[in-house]
Design brief:
Layout (H helix, E strand, L loop, with lengths): L5 H18 L9 H12 L6 E7 L5 E9 L9 H10 L4 E7 L9 H15 L4 E9 L1 E4 L7
Helix pairs in contact: 3-4
Length: 150
């Protein structure tokens, strides 16, 4: 956030902290893809390394929890569908939204991102958990669902 004064940066940081605390509360409803997008931008945009995260939802798509499951390097993270399924089952999730960041800034998903998404969706479907979307955060946010990839 170049060009902001120290006071403005403190205000932005405080607003982010308030939003993050609100979004991490169980029962918060994510009303639209735009609400998820804004949340994930705040959570992941300025991370120097890749993070793979999961938002677990109940049957009414209210947040159960948000978890950073896997941390990687500047260009990749090892992600294990089995662990995602285990965590989702342990939280009794009915649906998931997955997300990861691209520290390079380019939000376009790679071929590996597409393959991984398909594997996660398939694994979750075996235990009747829906994968609602996969967001890639860079300088902007890419939604698999909005782009017809889910």
């Amino acid at each position: 956030m170049q060009g902001l004064t120290k006071q403005e940066l403190r205000i932005v940081d405080k607003a982010r902290d308030i939003l993050m605390a609100h979004m991490r509360k169980a029962g918060v409803s994510l009303e639209s893809p735009e609400a998820v997008r804004r949340y994930l931008e705040l959570e992941l945009m300025n991370e120097p390394n890749e993070w793979f995260c999961v938002i677990m939802l109940d049957t009414r798509h209210r947040v159960i929890t948000f978890e950073r499951l896997f941390q990687g390097s500047i260009s990749t993270a090892s992600v294990y569908p089995r662990v995602i399924v285990q965590r989702a089952l342990s939280e009794n999730a009915a649906a998931l939204i997955i997300a990861h960041n691209h520290p390079s800034g380019c939000p376009q998903p790679s071929q590996a991102d597409r393959v991984l998404t398909a594997r996660i969706k398939e694994a979750l479907s075996l235990v009747e958990i829906s994968l609602l979307d996969h967001f890639v955060v860079g300088q902007g946010v890419y939604s698999f669902a909005e782009n017809g990839l889910l």
